[in-house]
C-alpha cells in the first residue's frame, strides 16, 4: 500500500496542478470519484496481498481474469457487440482460469504459497475490481475529462491508501531501517547501483 500511496500522490500532484491552473469546474460529482478510487485501491491491495499466499505464476495468470470481466461489463453497460471469435477467446480465457485454480489446488507442494486458495481468491477479487475500474475510467475519459479523472482518482486514492497504510502497515514502516538504499528502492530508482559503483 505504501507504493500505491505514492503513485496516487504523484497523480494528484501532476494532474491536480494542471487542473487547478486551468481552473476547470467539476463535471462529475465527487463521490463517483471516491467510489472509483475505493475500487482501484482495493483492487491493487487484493492483488498485492495475494502474493503472500499463492505463487507468482498464479497471480500473473489469474490477473488476466480482468479481460473477460471488462468484456462482460462493456457488453452490459456500454452495449458493445462482440463477434464469435472474441467470444471464443473469452471462453478460452475462462477455461485457463479454471485450469490454473485446479492446478493450484492439486499442486500445493509445488505452488510456492502458504494458502493458494486464498491467494487465488484475492487475485480474482482484485481482477474484478480492476474490471469495474477500467470500464468506469473508459466511460469517464470518453464522456467527461481525462484531467479531472486523474486528479480526483489520485486525490481520493491517496487518501484511502494513506489511511490503509496507517492502519495496516504502520508496524512494518516503523520497523524499516530507512537508509539510502531502502529509500531509492522504495522510489523505484536504480540510482543505488550508480551510487554504489561511484562510492
Describe it for me?
- Belongs to the SLC35F solute transporter family.
- InterPro entries: EmrE-like (IPR037185), SLC35_F1/F2/F6 (IPR009262), SLC35F_Transporter (IPR052221).
- This is Solute carrier family 35 member F1.
- With 199 residues, the protein is mainly α.
- It contains 11 helices and no strands.
- The protein is flat, with a radius of gyration of 20 Å.
- Mean pLDDT across residues: 82
Q: Please summarize the sheet with the most strands.
A: none
Count of helices? 11
Q: Can you count the beta strands?
A: 0
Helicity range: over 70%
Structural category is mainly alpha
- Radius of gyration, in Å, reads 20 Å
- The CA-CA distance between the termini, in Å, is 32 Å
Estimate what percentage of residues fall within beta strands: under 5%
- List the helices and strands in order: HHHHHHHHHHH
Question: Which stretches of 5+ consecutive residues score pLDDT under 50?
Answer: 190-199
**Shape summary:** flat
Amino acid at each position: 500500500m505504501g507504493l500505491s500511496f505514492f503513485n496516487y500522490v504523484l497523480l494528484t500532484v501532476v494532474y491536480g496542478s494542471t487542473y487547478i491552473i486551468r481552473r476547470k469546474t467539476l463535471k462529475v460529482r465527487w463521490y463517483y470519484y471516491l467510489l472509483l478510487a475505493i475500487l482501484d485501491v482495493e483492487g491493487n491491495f487484493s492483488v498485492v496481498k495475494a502474493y503472500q499466499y499463492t505463487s507468482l505464476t498464479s497471480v500473473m495468470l489469474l490477473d488476466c481474469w480482468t479481460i473477460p470481466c471488462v468484456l462482460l461489463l462493456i457488453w452490459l453497460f456500454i452495449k458493445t457487440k462482440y463477434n464469435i471469435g472474441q467470444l471464443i477467446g473469452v471462453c478460452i480465457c475462462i477455461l485457463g482460469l479454471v485450469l490454473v485454480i485446479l492446478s493450484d489446488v492439486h499442486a500445493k507442494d509445488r505452488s510456492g504459497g502458504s494458502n493458494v486458495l486464498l491467494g487465488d481468491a484475492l487475485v480474482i477479487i482484485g481482477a474484478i475490481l480492476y474490471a469495474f475500474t477500467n470500464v468506469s475510467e473508459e466511460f469517464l475519459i470518453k464522456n467527461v475529462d481525462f484531467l479531472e479523472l486523474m486528479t480526483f482518482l489520485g486525490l481520493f486514492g491517496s487518501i484511502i491508501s494513506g489511511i490503509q497504510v496507517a492502519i495496516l502497515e504502520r508496524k512494518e514502516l516503523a520497523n524499516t531501517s530507512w537508509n539510502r538504499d531502502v529509500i531509492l528502492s522504495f522510489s523505484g530508482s536504480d540510482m543505488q547501483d550508480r551510487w554504489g559503483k561511484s562510492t
